[in-house]
């Protein structure tokens, strides 16, 4: 049975409803699935699974980011049941977003590079679950937009400056083939989220998200039809890798 639409799906529909003109994404003539935004023939919705996890995520998305078919933030919501998503506002942050940060249910961590930390802001590279107060879950906050937009969101959102930063330098360069940042070390939102899951002790779940991201990238590129035949791997290689990672993560929790 198909899973119900998640927070990013709902936010996408809201953002479309207030648009004054259609969003001009690359490949706009492609007939897309309304949920995963991949070409219909490469839709991955039937493969979507929910992970067993202690993590919660909060996506703070730049205005048009939620409309972009290349956005990888939605992949987090695909797999993590407790994911929240809001459009960023410089002057009027949503009350529900601020309430999440103050909720006794959560311990929020902003996943962001240490080099941008405000003076006195706590910087961590691991969050052992044993360090959380009883009854609290880690709320991993992702600023979802281009690199320039993410920096702007951070700098112009004072409510983020008192939160501990979860920061790390990945050993591998970005593999995000759709919209690379201006520097090789910049990663896609879902890739960073997979590292964040590893930082709270859920490396197996991080692997699932990473393989889900790989499938998303390959499906997107196939939809563009810009790859040489010699460079193409069967899409089943990516679906099999995702399903294997999910099975291994699930078996590890039994």
TrEMBL record:
The keyword Transport does not apply. Residues 29-225 form the DTW domain. InterPro entries: DTW, DTWD2/TAPT. The keyword Transferase applies. GO terms for molecular function: tRNA-uridine aminocarboxypropyltransferase activity. Keywords: S-adenosyl-L-methionine, Transferase, tRNA processing. Its EC number is 2.5.1.25. This is tRNA-uridine aminocarboxypropyltransferase. It comes from Shewanella scandinavica.
């Amino acid at each position: 049975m198909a899973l119900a639409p998640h927070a990013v799906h709902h936010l996408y529909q809201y953002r479309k409803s207030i648009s004054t003109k259609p969003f001009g994404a690359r490949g706009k003539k492609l007939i897309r699935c309304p949920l995963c935004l991949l070409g219909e023939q490469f839709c991955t919705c039937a493969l979507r699974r929910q992970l067993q996890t202690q993590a919660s995520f909060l996506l703070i998305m730049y205005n048009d980011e939620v409309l972009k078919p290349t956005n990888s933030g939605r992949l987090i919501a695909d797999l993590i049941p407790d994911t929240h998503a809001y459009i960023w506002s410089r002057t009027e942050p949503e009350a529900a977003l601020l309430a999440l940060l103050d909720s006794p249910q959560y311990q929020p961590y902003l996943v962001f590079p240490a080099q941008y930390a405000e003076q006195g802001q706590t910087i961590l590279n691991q969050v052992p679950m044993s360090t959380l107060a009883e009854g609290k879950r880690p709320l991993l906050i992702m600023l979802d937009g281009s690199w320039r937009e993410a920096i702007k969101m951070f700098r112009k959102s004072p409510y983020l400056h008192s939160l501990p930063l979860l920061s790390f330098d990945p050993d591998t360069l970005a593999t995000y083939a759709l919209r690379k940042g201006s520097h090789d070390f910049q990663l896609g939102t879902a890739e960073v989220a997979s590292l964040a899951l590893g930082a709270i002790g859920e490396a197996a779940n991080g692997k699932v998200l990473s393989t889900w991201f790989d499938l998303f990238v390959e499906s997107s590129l196939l939809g563009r039809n810009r790859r040489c035949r010699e460079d193409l791997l069967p899409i089943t290689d990516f679906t099999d890798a995702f399903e294997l990672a999910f099975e291994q993560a699930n078996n590890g929790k039994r």
